[in-house]
Amino acid sequence: MRDRVGIIAIQGDIEAHAAALEECGAEPVRVLHAHQLGDLHALIVPGGESTTIAKGLARLGLAEPLHGFAESGRPLLGTCAGAILLSRASRNHPVPTLGLIDAVALRNAYGTQVDSFAAVCDPGGAFDALRCIFIRAPRLAELGPAVETLVRVDGDPVLLRDGNVLAATFHPELTEDRRVHELLLAPKG
How confident is the model at residue 93, as a pLDDT? Predict the structure, then answer.
């Protein structure tokens, strides 16, 4: 039986995450209601527009169920806007956040849409030579003591782990490299 992995389907690159999960052998599930979270192995809050997704989470009453999901110990990944929403706070036109990763998100820290870029991560570790695509990307700052930096680009943390919660300031779903999605699916231990 394949692991079922939810993707919050309010807005963003849901289809690219679904394709990445399929390639990793998981079954993607588009999530718009709290009752859909019950039997999921893991969950993704995708990139997109953080204000739109935050309003959708509020409208659909998903904030508390997402807290419960994280508290259950199941893996959770936020990419770009999703990383903003998982942070303890956001700056630069703040949006409501869920406080699931001990970091502050600086929205649009790399500039506007025209400033989007791709870069290979700093060398070393399990993610060596990972290509990262940044689209109106945030930076994650003021990291808490339990937050682990897994990937850096030009010295800046771009993939973080805080317990069972992962936050990527880039879009791993837009490349053919599936290591970030595989990390989400990896058993604990």
Answer: 84
9-23 burial, b if ≥16 CB within 10 A, otherwise e? bbbbbbebbbebbee
Cα separation, 13 vs 94, in Å, equals: 22
Tokens standing for residue 154: 């030009």
The region that residue 50 occupies, defined by phi over 0 for left and psi between -120 and 50 for alpha, beta otherwise, is alpha
Residue with tokens 């690159």: 13
Per-residue DSSP letter, 180: H
pLDDT in tens, 106-118: 987 776 677 688 9
Task: Verify whether residue 148 is a known catalytic residue.
Answer: no
Catalytic residue list contains 35? no
Read off the pTM: 0.95
Respond yes or no: is residue 67 known to be catalytic.
Answer: no
Quote the pLDDT of residue 124.
Answer: 84
For residue 119, give every residue at least 6 positions away whose Cβ sits within 8 Å of its Cβ, in sequence order, or none: 131, 132, 134, 153, 154
- Check 24, 80, 121, 132 and give the catalytic one: 80
DSSP reduced 3-state for 91: strand
Q: Which of 24, 132, 173, 181 is catalytic?
A: 173
Please determine, for residue 60, whether its predicted confidence score (pLDDT) is greater than 60. yes
CATH for 4-185 is 3.40.50.880
Catalytic residue among 24, 121, 171, 181: 171
**Domain limits of the chain?**
4-185
